[in-house]
Automatic annotation (TrEMBL):
Region described as Disordered: spans on this chain: 197-237, 275-302, 348-389
UniProt keywords, alphabetically: Signal
Domain of life: Eukaryota
Signal peptide: 1-19
Compositionally biased residues, Low complexity: 197-207, 360-389
Record has Hydrolase as a keyword: no
Name of the protein described by the UniProt record: RAP domain-containing protein
Length: 389
């Protein structure tokens, strides 16, 4: 009895998500290991198991290699090819993974009508860009077609998908001028939407873009040409999103307008402030100073409340750190849970300095000089905020 294609895709997606990286396969760029946060999202509101440690690497890689070879022989649509390529990209640099990846990518580029990449929707484009970032040996023709499709979709992308797309292509070193300029224009629109929402009043914390976070299941049966126009005008919902855009542009040598950089830094600062206040509100009050009996009586409630604090912190940080708090349900804080919130921007923050000009890209300043120059930047941000008010 022949296994259906959707079942093969679901199995490949599940095997890849459960974590196949072994100690000798540490080649994936930081920020794209979806299983590293301990929470696997197969759809809106659905969570998978938490995997402790590494799985059986040899058997898992062998199974996924066989699945990739079988999928390469079948007729797949562009969206399913993107899911299969994402699964194969988690195998590391094994020869079987490379062969299957190239076969599937050639199948995608051989589609009529300008190639299958031109038919991908927003979620599939982001998933495929993540796969190309994980697989450093992705074909250059696929990267070019993917960047062109991303440039066409950028004017309608929501903030989480836009940040993930720019970050993934920056990790793959794909500097597409049209995509960079389109992402800058879209970022300006999102910053304006955020400013309008802030002026109108406090936003709801549950507005995370619905099912448009790019974590669709492997057996998705949506149309390959879907534009995915869902929740695209809600502005930035997490501080990680403007940070990912600024860092990705910096790595690709793209200098956005200075006013836009200041606006995005102001948005990120405001969102960090909101996230900090949300975590502070979830922090339980200190136990009353009493004897040992009082401490023992208040121990259980304090321990129970501390779990909520860890969950709120994990939600505000977007799952950047995998630990005991990652297995608990995340609080819906500042739109946490989107695809871009799973980026490991926290690990990159403070390590890379965004240069003011491409010629200064290699001139990274020492930490002491950065601290001395920080007050003028804060003054510029304050002046800009006052002008906006």
């Amino acid at each position: 009895m022949e296994v259906q294609t959707c079942e093969l895709l679901r199995l490949a997606w599940a095997v890849a998500v459960l974590g196949l990286q072994t100690p000798e396969d540490e080649r994936e760029p930081a920020g794209f290991d979806i299983a590293s946060s301990g929470v696997v999202r197969e759809g809106a509101g659905r969570r998978g198991p938490r995997v402790a440690g590494h799985c059986a690497g040899a058997r898992g890689r062998g199974l996924l290699s066989e699945l990739g070879a079988e999928l390469a022989r079948r007729r797949l649509g562009p969206a399913r090819v993107a899911t299969a390529l994402w699964s194969l990209s988690r195998l590391g640099g094994s020869p079987a993974a490379r062969r299957a990846f190239h076969l599937l990518s050639q199948r995608l580029m051989a589609e009529p009508g300008g190639g299958g990449a031109a038919q991908l929707g927003p979620a599939a484009v982001v998933k495929l860009a993540t796969a190309c970032a994980q697989a450093a040996w992705a074909p250059s023709a696929l990267l070019s077609a993917l960047a062109a499709r991303g440039a066409a979709l950028a004017p309608r992308l929501p903030a989480p998908l836009l940040a993930q797309l720019v970050w993934a292509l920056a990790a793959a070193r794909v500097a597409h001028r049209g995509l960079l300029e389109a992402s800058a224009r879209r970022a300006a629109e999102l910053a304006t939407a955020f400013a309008d929402e802030s002026a109108a009043g406090p936003t709801t914390a549950s507005s995370s873009g619905g099912g448009c976070d790019g974590s669709d299941s492997s057996d998705s049966s949506r149309s390959d040409g879907s534009d995915g126009s869902c929740g695209s005008n809600e502005g930035f919902t997490s501080s990680r999103q403007p940070e990912a855009l600024l860092l990705g542009w910096s790595q690709l040598g793209f200098c956005p307008p200075p006013a836009l950089s200041l606006r995005l830094e102001a948005v990120a600062s405001e969102l960090r402030r909101r996230e900090g206040r949300a975590v502070a509100r979830a922090t339980p009050p200190p136990p009353p100073a009493g004897g040992a009996g009082g401490a023992a009586a208040g121990g259980a409630p304090a321990a129970a409340a501390s779990g909520g604090v860890e969950a709120a912190a994990a939600g505000s940080l977007g799952g950047a750190g995998a630990g005991a708090g990652a297995s608990r349900p995340r609080a819906s804080v500042a739109g946490a849970g989107g695809l871009a919130d799973r980026l490991a921007i926290a690990t990159a923050r403070g390590r890379l300095v965004r240069p003011a000009h491409p010629s200064q890209r290699q001139q990274l300043e020492p930490p002491q000089q950065q601290q001395q120059q920080q007050p003028p930047q804060q003054q510029q941000l304050q002046q800009y905020q006052q002008q906006q008010q």
